[in-house]
Amino acid sequence: MSLLLIATIAISGGLLLLLALGDPKRRRTAAVKSGAQGTAVRRLLVGASLSPGAAWIASGDAAAFLIWFGGCAMAGWLVTLVLARGWLDPR
Asked: How much of the chain, in percent, has pLDDT values that exceed 70?
């Protein structure tokens, strides 16, 4: 179960990274014209990143859901740190 839990955190974190990279506001402030995601794509990415949590809830494993939730929060902070440092500059 622990490998599956780590995999779901990694999948959700990767989707959060894709969501952050295509954020129209962030791309506009960086003066990048192309590559912004539309509303439908952003909603799809949000739904996809939350679906592992819904699966943990549906399976009835509260501990796995809480670990996944905390891992996604940490992945979100990591994405923010990486993008704030400019390591994945969209230019």
From this structure: 81
Residue 53 confidence (pLDDT) above 90? yes
Amino acid at 6: I
Q: What is the pTM of this model?
A: 0.82
Torsion 40-84-13-68 (CA) sign: negative
Q: What is the pLDDT of residues 28-45, one digit of tens each?
A: 666 666 666 778 888 999
* Cα dihedral 33, 38, 39, 41 in deg (nearest 10): -130
**Exposure string (b/e) for 38-66, b if CB count within 10 Å is 16 or more?**
eeeebeebeeebeebbeebeeeeeeebbe
> How far separated are the first and last CA of the chain, in Å rounded?
40
